[in-house]
User: Fold Copper chaperone PCu(A)C from Microbispora bryophytorum.
Amino acid sequence: MSAAFATLVNTTGEAVTVVAASTPVSSSVELHEVVGDGGTTTMRRKQGGFVIPAGGRHVLQPGGDHIMLIGVRTAVEPGVEVPFTLTLKDGRTVSFIAVAKDFAGANESYASHE
Assistant:
């Protein structure tokens, strides 16, 4: 597994909701959030997707909302350009290229969350 972090920017006059994501480097991609409950944190699918307010931003970051890549098909080394396509609630898609970076992260471990 791997994760994608970014700042999603909405330059329109209306809120948009990201409901899905895809990339050819992974067999499955999910929108995730990290939630706290009684001193523990859990990663889970983000119900309803990521809402980006009109003229606003939505930050994807470690320990918060992020794009989870499951079944990564090939090693993604720092500097590699990774294409992503986001699907919005209204059916439109937005594509972008992310440059992979080294991330030692929070030394997270993931149990099956299906």
Notes: Residues 2-99 form a domain with the Immunoglobulin-like fold (CATH 2.60.40.1890). DSSP finds no helices and ten strands in the chain.
